[in-house]
Amino acid sequence: MAEHRTEGKITRDRFPLPDVTWPLTAGFWEGAAHDELRLPVCDGCGRFRWYPKETCGRCDAEPFTWTATSGRGTLYSWVVATHAFLPQFADLVPYVPALVALEEDPSVRIPTRMVDVDPAALTFDMPVTVTFRPISFAGIDGAVPAPMFVPA
Amino acid sequence: MARQRIADPSEWGAATEFDDIGGEVAICGVGDSDMSKASGRTTREIVGQAVERALADAGLEPTDIDGLMYVGMPEQFDGAAFHEYFGTHHDLWESRRGGGMTMAASAPYYAAEALRDGRATYVLNTFGVAWATQRGEMTGGPGQAHAQDLFKQNLEIPFGWFPQPVYFATIARRHLHEFGTTEEQLGAIAVACRRHANANPAAVMHTKPLSLEQYLASPKFVEPFRKEDCCLISDGGGAYIMTTPDRALDRPKAPVTVAGVGLGNSFSGTHWAQQPAFMSTPAVFSAPVAYGMAGVGPADIDLFTCYDPFTIVTLMQIEDHGFCAKGDGGTFVAGDTLHFDVGTLPHNTHGGMLSHAYDLGISHVSEVVRQLRGEAVNQVADCEVGVYAGYTGPQGSTLILRRGT
After folding, report:
1. Which of A135, B17, B268, B346 could form a disulfide with B274 if both were Cys (CB 3.0 to 4.6 A apart)?
2. Which domain holds residue B102?
3. Nearest to A111 among B149, B159, B221 (CB)
4. Cβ B160–A89 below 8 Å, yes or no?
5. Distance from CA of B182 to the nearest CA of A (A)
6. Closest Cβ–Cβ partner in B154, B156, B220 for A22
7. Which chain A residues contact residue B74 at CB under 8 A?
8. Where are any strands of DSSP class E within B177-255?
9. Is position A14 within any domain?
10. What distance in Å separates the CA atoms of residue B168 and residue B391, rounded to the nearest whole number?
């Protein structure tokens, strides 16, 4: 697997907003800006290629296409963060980072946040559906439209 | 309730192919640095202290060391650091396939080659961190290594799925849901390690007892984890010296031999969100190789040490080493199973990363060696075969050591 890493302390000035121009994930964020949960589909074998990578792990094909999905899935697991693990998250506490299994292929798990719901009402494998909300952090310029999830 | 199927092993990872090196490598010296909260020491000072103690333990001089293994991370104890520390200048075989974590288990495999063809006669493996001292300068503390991953920066961190406590709490919650594992069972792991640390003067938590009642009363900071479910953040390091079994017989301490070793790899690396076998570790791949090489099975293991950043990681490695079925880890560890004296599987008898020190596993190997020599603080009776299991996420490893040559 190709390494895509930076070194040392993170100095990118809009961190922890995503870098929507980073080539491998730009299509995900572009989809979100158009209210679509787009995921990469391998042009060779038609399977989801997630996380995106230069070469398909199944068929070795290189090209893939960002494809709109149903936006539906099930809640595979989540936590309720009552503690900010990065200082930029302090205003968001409590927040609910989650992994949603895509309806079309449950082996595809989307890191996301659960919103508009009392965390106590969440249950494992409940049907959820995408909603688009801006990710923003106090003191950092700009907001990025992002796929988050609510109970279906 | 839809149950996630347990993924076919061939879909999510594989063992590294290893030749049989059983019986070819012995450990003849071990040393740990002082373990502490933030100390202001540098990594090299920490490791240097551990090396001095390992040399004394082996009855060797710095000039006897002709092989050096370490991990390719900043400030580790490479040849330049060794020579600067000891004022030596002799030739050294060097390998970056050493260090802590999974490499504290797999380093002997790569040392075997150098020992066999005479490139080295005494090979030193070291690892240390000063992350308690350095924590404030790291993005997300020990989460920094994950924050540097561009997939995480651009797909996970913006949502708050970061860092390690969140990853492993997510995994733990699924384990509790699918298998009925309880918080009391996670607590049994923390309580056993703390009890062992309370008897170990070298342990950071030596003076801080922990009962199951105290564990349950401790507030959760990311459910289901309490701080006692998480390893220490401390400064410290360790070292061990490898040689051939015949040379080890001439050293002052009883030799300990590498009976088996295995290294497993997860195809999804540190992207736990995508790991098909979400509640497993690559020990699924490393353990069978090590057991096969050693000619033993789980029933033969007298001591199980493992890399323990969180109680759930210990629990999964116990399952993945075949001490019980997948999903039965909670029932297995409940009560006093892991205690050095009355338990059926003595575990992390020095206190582990949970209660001894945050040295990423290198001192677990020292502890196994001491136990097999009969000189451990929490001595397991008739300890003949011990395991160190290393883990980083992308890899899991299994080292089986046995008393004698």
Report:
1. B268
2. 26-135+234-248
3. B159
4. yes
5. 16
6. B154
7. none
8. 220-222, 225-226, 235-243
9. no
10. 13
Contacts of B355 (CB under 8 A, 6+ apart): B190, B193, B194, B196, B197, B203, B204, B205, B210, B232
Cβ B129 vs Cβ B235: under 8 Å: yes
The string of DSSP letters for B191-205 reads HHHHHHHHT-TTSTT
Query: Scanning every residue of chain B, which has its alpha carbon at the shortest distance from the alpha carbon of A28?
Result: B155
Which pLDDT belongs to residue B10?
64
Residue-number span of the structural domain to which A111 is assigned: 26-151
CA distance A33 to chain B (A): 15
Least confident range of A76-80, B189-193, B233-237, B342-346? B233-237
Instruction: Search chain A and give the residue with CA nearest B149.
Output: A5
pLDDT, average across residues B236-261: 97
- Residue B102 belongs to domain with CATH number: 3.40.47.10
ipTM over the 0.95 cut-off: yes
CA distances from A40 to A55, B272, B278, B283 (A): 12, 19, 22, 30
Considering only CA atoms, which of B294, B308, B327 is closest in space to residue B396? B308
Count how many domains chain B has.
1
Q: B181-202, pLDDT tens digit by residue?
A: 999 999 999 999 999 999 999 9
Asked if residue A40 has a cis previous peptide bond (ω within 30° of 0), the answer is: no
Closest CB to A111 among B4, B161, B223: B161
Q: Tell me the backbone φ, ψ of residue B225, rounded to 5 degrees.
A: -85, 135
Q: Which chain B residues have a beta carbon less than 8 Å from that of A74?
A: 2
CB A76 to CB B222 under 8 A? no
B85's CB contacts (< 8 A; 6+ apart) are B44, B48, B51, B77
Residue A30 within a domain: yes
Instruction: Report the domain count for chain A.
Output: 1
3-state secondary structure of B48: helix
Show residues of chain B in contact with A78, CB under 8 Å: 170, 173
For chain B, helix (H) and strand (E) counts, in that order, are: 16, 12
Q: Where are the alpha helices (DSSP H) in chain A?
A: 26-33
Can you give the pTM of this predicted structure?
A: 0.95
Query: Does A16 fall in a domain?
Result: no
Q: How confident is the model at residue B26 (pLDDT cuts 50, 70, 90)?
A: very high
- Looking from the CA of B141 toward its CB, the CA atoms found within 13 Å total 16
Q: Does A53 touch chain B (CB under 8 A)?
A: no
* Inter-chain CB proximity A81 and B222 less than 8 Å: yes
A123 exposed, middle or buried (CB, 10 Å; 0-12, 13-18, 19+)? Answer: exposed
Q: Which two tokens stand for residue A60?
A: 């070795």
Across residues B392-402, what is the average pLDDT? Answer: 95
**Interface membership of A47 toward B (CB under 8 Å):** no
Residue B2 pLDDT class (50, 70, 90 cuts): very low
Cα–Cα distances in angstroms (integers) from residue B367 to residues A13, A16, B256, in the given order:
44, 40, 12
User: CB–CB of A111 and B151 under 8 A?
Assistant: no
- Closest residue of chain B to A52, computed from CA coordinates: B151
Asked if residue B9 is part of any domain, the answer here is no
